[in-house]
């Protein structure tokens, strides 16, 4: 982004504070554009013909330093790149690292279809949403155009996920592209030896293309500059992922240099970056070892600037960790850490429903909330104001105490005697040591729930409703 | 959330889990016992501990190959043959593709110029833990952390010290996730033997002694009694120690005082001083007996500054005796906050905030609190199969630790031997001290894979 003050944006906006964009003033909208929480087309007056110059100017000024590249079509398409900062706390990282799991053209058809389905269907629940793989990379291990084309076709029959077509042989690559170009796949890869032929394919079909220059950043930049000159803007850079030894440190620094230069304003190299943790399998053949090392590489390059990755292991422990880390690093750090303290209803609670205590740390709250709601446990869930600290640490640090619990019930006007028939409070298992204090202060029965809210359904079966005194 | 606080709670929690865990024991088919690559692990012991343990041993052996056991030679030939197939793209008949007026016949030549970061003007304080006989201690070697002039592994400035791992030892048997427990069942109840095991078999650089039993709600062991455990461990191993209390803010100061006294001259790391206990007593104990202090805060950069300031200005703790623990939250459970908090602390230090120029320590063990680490299967019925938890736990600990390594963390407090080995391997590889034969990646696309 070329600007860092709302004033610089404001002067190109209509300035009449019409409010169509959803905020009251053009200055406020300028701030939203600057932190990328608002979009130019929210300002409809700006889209009118007479404002064309201003719109273009703003598009130029507000464009992210790292270009965005879209791969695939429809709902499942992914956008990669688009970052403006080197550290997530400076703004946020945009467009979560896209994870592509591989299939290859020497797989027999049954295994191919099964693997595609498995990748497409894999999902891991996490605070209200499912994390899942983003793409499928199809490798030509046969180097046979016909085989590759058939495999691409078969994959397309079985998934809508965006595709990466992988071959260093332009003839093979073209055979795949002829089948899949309407799906807007990413091509892999142009190299120092095939770049003209691959450029022809990319330009002819207007597709994004990866440039592969293992451990030579000057050549990588030369390729990028040349493709750009030929009219290719949709580029992805792969400086090679060396899986072990000193070369891995070099790979780490290559990727770092590309991103630092790009964010620093070197337009010729400001493209999304690809890492290939799959190279773990060039050194490890044992599934567990290769999967562990691949996950380790994926972790390094999720954190340090990989925008798209090609992976092989579909072991759940590998995929779960990879998906979670992508979510972790790309979560917007500006989003609130806390939920408002209060007593929330989960489902449709009645006086017989339990009152469960947790903290107002957003992650804790939403985890408990989803564990309750997905198991259809009607309940009252009290989010105690612990300054956004989780249960365990808040008990240790004195942010979760009997008086804090009393405070939240008063705040919510929640009288145990009026709202419940049981006068019972369920404390988190990790807050067991508060039991006596809470009993005394609230004159209520206190039960100690499970240490992990995932165990609440089983705990409820055994302990709820409470025995009458 | 740092371990000194969590352990007393963790005990109850994990004891609960363990019962569940045993209920869930499943023996999956015939197990081939192959633990040849396992260093000091005793195969007979694996048998003795039963089938399930043997299965874990196989897992461990698998991961151990990462450390370069000869198993790898078989694979080297595979990558060599790949090298032979490096694709030499023949210049094709270019006339056949007459596309685009902008077609270039020659590559435009460019150079990538990247300057080292200018804004990193300060050096992180070096802190040495442990003391050898020449410095009045009895450790055979010491560990020095910190000293960075850039973010870790960055080309801007070489990192002077590698990352280190200190492994947990408890002063009483405690509940723990099953995948961890199988490694320690034979030494639980004997902290000295436990310490020997983590050093000799699991390659720990240091040992953390947790005096959990001192918690009034657990055994209320007296400080004097607890300090005997410290003496035992000092006798048993010759690496530097971290000494942790139970996490009880009233009891910890006197427990750590006594422990500091019996460990005089050994330059241990006292864990921890925090804003919610009498940090002055702990600071004083460190100064009087020649130790370092762990300055622990909860995911809050300003609180970290405040505590460091108090330790330095109010308690006169020397700069070279302060290590920070800004709190570790596990992958999926607030790692985003923990990561960014550490990264901000380190960047602020490098840019000259003298209240934050200290090395950092992570209670990576917290990763075992994540349900993905220990639950047998997902509590969410729509989830895909989570697979065996024996594999999930270690990877959770590794990814949590590795993420923080990239944020600038120096010292890792860990529990599972596999996690320790893999974390050491990757951090030392990034550090640049691991020599391996260069792998030819030029034709990785054509790698042949088995179907998993």
UniProtKB/TrEMBL annotation, chain B:
Gene3D superfamilies named in the record: Dihydropteroate synthase-like (3.20.20.20)
Lineage of the species this protein comes from: Archaea, Methanobacteriati, Methanobacteriota, Stenosarchaea group, Methanomicrobia
Pfam (any one): CdhD
Subunit structure: Heterodimer of delta and gamma chains. The ACDS complex is made up of alpha, epsilon, beta, gamma and delta chains with a probable stoichiometry of (alpha(2)epsilon(2))(4)-beta(8)-(gamma(1)delta(1))(8).
Nucleotide-binding recorded as keyword: no
GO biological process, one term: one-carbon metabolic process
Protein name (Swiss-Prot/TrEMBL): Acetyl-CoA decarbonylase/synthase complex subunit delta
PANTHER family: ACETYL-COA DECARBONYLASE_SYNTHASE COMPLEX SUBUNIT DELTA, PTHR36214
Role this protein plays: Part of a complex that catalyzes the reversible cleavage of acetyl-CoA, allowing growth on acetate as sole source of carbon and energy. Probably maintains the overall quaternary structure of the ACDS complex.
Provenance organism: Methanosalsum natronophilum
Family recorded in the similarity comment: Belongs to the CdhD family.
Highest taxon of the lineage: Archaea
Residue ranges annotated for the CO dehydrogenase/acetyl-CoA synthase delta subunit TIM barrel domain, each copy included: 126-375
UniProt xrefs under NCBIfam families: cdhD (TIGR00381), PRK04452.1-1 (NF003375), PRK04452.1-2 (NF003376)
Key words, A-Z: Methanogenesis
Keyword S-adenosyl-L-methionine: no
Pathway: One-carbon metabolism; methanogenesis from acetate
InterPro entries noted in UniProt: Ac-CoA_synth_d_su_TIM-brl (IPR016041), ACDS_complex_subunit (IPR051069), CO_DH/Ac-CoA_synth_dsu (IPR004486), Dihydropteroate_synth-like_sf (IPR011005)
């Amino acid at each position: 982004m070329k600007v860092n003050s709302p004033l610089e944006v404001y002067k190109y906006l209509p300035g009449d504070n019409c409010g169509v964009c959803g905020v009251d003033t053009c200055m406020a909208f300028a701030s939203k554009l600057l932190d990328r929480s608002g979009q130019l087309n929210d300002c409809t007056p700006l889209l009118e013909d007479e404002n064309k110059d201003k719109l273009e100017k703003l598009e130029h000024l507000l464009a992210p330093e790292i270009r965005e590249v879209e791969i695939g079509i429809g709902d499942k398409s992914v956008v990669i790149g688009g970052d403006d900062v080197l550290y997530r706390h400076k703004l946020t990282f945009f467009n979560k690292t896209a994870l592509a799991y591989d299939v290859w053209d020497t797989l027999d058809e049954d295994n191919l279809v099964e693997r595609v389905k498995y990748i497409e269907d894999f999902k891991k629940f996490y605070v209200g949403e499912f994390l899942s793989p983003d793409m499928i990379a199809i490798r030509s291990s046969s180097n046979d155009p016909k085989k590759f084309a058939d495999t691409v076709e078969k994959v397309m029959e079985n998934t809508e996920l965006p595709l990466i077509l992988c071959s260093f042989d332009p003839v093979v690559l073209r055979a795949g592209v002829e089948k899949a170009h309407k799906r807007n796949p990413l091509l892999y890869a142009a190299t120092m030896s095939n770049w003209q032929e691959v450029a022809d394919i990319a330009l002819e079909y207007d597709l994004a293309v990866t440039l592969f220059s293992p451990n030579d950043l000057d050549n990588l930049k030369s390729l990028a500059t040349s493709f750009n000159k030929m009219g290719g803007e949709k580029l992805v850079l792969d400086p090679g992922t060396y899986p072990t030894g000193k070369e891995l440190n070099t790979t780490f620094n290559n990727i770092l240099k590309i991103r630092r230069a790009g964010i620093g304003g070197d337009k010729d190299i400001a493209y999304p970056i690809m890492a290939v943790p799959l190279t773990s399998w060039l050194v490890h053949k044992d599934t567990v070892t290769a999967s562990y090392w691949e996950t380790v590489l994926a972790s390094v390059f999720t954190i340090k600037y990989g925008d798209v990755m090609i992976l092989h292991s579909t072991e759940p422990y590998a995929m779960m960790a990879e998906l979670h880390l992508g979510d972790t690093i790309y979560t917007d750090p500006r989003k609130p850490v806390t939920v408002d303290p209060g007593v929330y209803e989960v489902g449709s609670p009645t006086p017989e429903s339990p009152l469960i205590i947790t903290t107002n740390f957003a992650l804790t709250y939403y985890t408990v909330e989803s564990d309750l709601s997905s198991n259809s446990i009607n309940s009252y869930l009290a989010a105690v104001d612990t300054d956004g600290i989780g249960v365990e640490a808040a008990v240790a640090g004195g942010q979760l105490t009997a008086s804090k619990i009393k405070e939240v019930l008063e705040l919510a006007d929640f009288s145990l005697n009026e709202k419940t028939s049981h006068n019972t409070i369920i404390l988190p298992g990790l807050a067991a040591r508060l039991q006596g204090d809470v009993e005394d202060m609230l004159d209520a029965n206190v039960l100690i729930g499970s240490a992990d809210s995932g165990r609440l359904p089983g705990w409820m079966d055994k302990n709820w409703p409470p025995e009458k005194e | 959330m740092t371990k000194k606080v969590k352990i007393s709670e963790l005990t109850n929690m994990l004891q609960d889990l363990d019962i569940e865990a045993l209920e869930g024991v499943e023996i999956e088919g015939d197990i081939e016992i192959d633990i040849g690559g396992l260093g000091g692990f005793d195969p007979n012991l694996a048998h003795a501990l039963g089938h399930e343990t043997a299965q874990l041993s196989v897992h461990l052996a698998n991961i151990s190959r990462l450390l370069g056991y000869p198993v790898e030679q078989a694979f080297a030939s595979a990558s060599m043959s790949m090298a032979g197939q490096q694709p030499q793209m023949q210049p094709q008949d270019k006339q056949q593709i007459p596309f685009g007026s902008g077609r270039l016949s020659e590559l435009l030549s460019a150079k990538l110029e990247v300057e080292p970061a200018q804004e990193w003007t300060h050096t992180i304080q070096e802190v040495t833990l442990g003391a050898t006989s020449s410095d009045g201690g009895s450790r055979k070697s010491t560990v020095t952390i910190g000293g960075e002039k850039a973010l870790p592994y960055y080309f801007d400035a070489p990192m002077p010290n590698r990352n280190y791992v200190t492994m947990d030892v408890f002063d009483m048997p405690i509940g723990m996730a099953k995948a961890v427990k199988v490694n320690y069942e034979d030494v639980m109840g004997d902290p000295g033997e436990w310490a020997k095991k983590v050093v000799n078999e699991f390659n720990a650089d240091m040992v953390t002694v947790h005096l959990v039993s001192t918690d009034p709600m657990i055994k209320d062991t007296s400080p004097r009694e607890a300090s005997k455990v410290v003496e035992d461990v000092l006798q048993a191993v010759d690496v530097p120690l971290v000494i942790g209390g139970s996490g009880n803010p009233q009891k910890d100061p006197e427990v750590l005082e006594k422990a500091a006294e019996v460990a005089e001259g050994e330059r241990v790391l006292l864990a921890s001083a925090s804003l919610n206990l009498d940090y002055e007593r702990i600071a004083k104990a460190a100064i009087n007996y020649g130790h370092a202090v762990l300055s622990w805060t909860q995911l809050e950069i300003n609180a970290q500054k405040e505590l460091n300031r108090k330790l330095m200005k109010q308690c006169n703790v020397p700069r070279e005796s302060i290590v920070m623990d800004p709190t570790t939250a596990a992958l999926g459970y607030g790692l985003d906050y923990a990561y960014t908090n550490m990264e901000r602390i380190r960047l602020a230090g490098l840019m000259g905030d003298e209240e934050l120029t200290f090395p950092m320590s992570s209670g990576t063990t917290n990763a075992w609190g994540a349900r993905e680490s220990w639950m047998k299967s997902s509590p969410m019925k729509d989830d895909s199969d989570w697979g065996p938890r024996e594999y999930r736990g270690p990877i959770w600990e590794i990814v949590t630790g590795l993420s923080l390594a990239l944020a600038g963390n120096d010292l890792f407090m860990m529990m599972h031997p596999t996690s320790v080995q893999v974390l050491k391997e990757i951090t030392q590889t990034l550090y640049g001290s691991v020599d391996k034969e260069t792998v030819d990646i030029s034709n990785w696309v054509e790698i042949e894979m088995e179907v998993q």
